[in-house]
Amino acid sequence: MYTENRKEIEGLIASYFEGIFNGDVEKLEKCFHDYTYLYGDIKGEDYLKSKSAYIEGVKNRQSPKSLGEEFRMAIIGIDILGKVAMAKLHVPFSGYNYYDYLSLANMDGKWKIVNKIFTHVD
């Protein structure tokens, strides 16, 4: 079961990365639970948005792919316990060096991101 869950989570994260990198908001939308909130620290400034506000921001910006950036996003680690999991990711793009911590839950047989916290590190 662990191996199956890990593969499903890795697939979810791959979709998350593709959504961010390609600006694919439909793909990105499917990664998150409807009630997800995102909190970040971007160069000392607080960032707090609902999933819908975050998706709207991605929709209204140029994607890293369209800017000719190299894809460098990676999974650092995944910790799974039953129907919940945590993932630590490195998400560098558009001049930022982000690290994401995703809380994941298996609801109705599908893994979803239920919370995201992140920071930019110089």
Account of the 3D structure:
The chain has 122 residues and is α+β, with helices and mostly antiparallel strands. Helix content is 30%, strand content 48%. It is built from three helices and six strands, in the order H-H-E-E-H-E-E-E-E. It has helices spanning 2-22, 25-31, 51-59, and strands at residues 32-42, 45-50, 74-81, 84-93, 96-107, 110-120. Strands 2-1-6-5-4-3 form a six-stranded mixed beta sheet. Helix 1 (2-22) packs antiparallel against helix 2. The radius of gyration is 14 Å and the shape is globular. 19% of the residues are buried.
* Spans of at least 5 consecutive residues with low confidence: none
In round numbers, the mean pLDDT is: 96
Counting copies of identical and different chains, the oligomeric state is single chain
> Taking strands numbered 1, 2, ... along the chain, how are they ordered across the largest sheet?
2-1-6-5-4-3
Helical content band: 25-40%
**How would you sum up the major sheet?**
6 strands, mixed
Distance between the termini: 38 Å
- The rough form would be described as globular
What is the CA-atom radius of gyration, in angstroms? 14 Å
Write the H/E string, N to C.
Answer: HHEEHEEEE
Strand content bin? over 45%
Number of helices: 3
| Helix/strand structural class | alpha+beta
E-strand count: 6
Which features would summarize this protein structure in a list?
122 residues, alpha+beta, globular
Question: Layout of helices and strands, plus pairs?
Answer:
Elements: H1 2-22, H2 25-31, E1 32-42, E2 45-50, H3 51-59, E3 74-81, E4 84-93, E5 96-107, E6 110-120
Parallel strand pairs: 1-6
Antiparallel strand pairs: 1-2, 3-4, 4-5, 5-6
Helix pairs in contact: 1-2
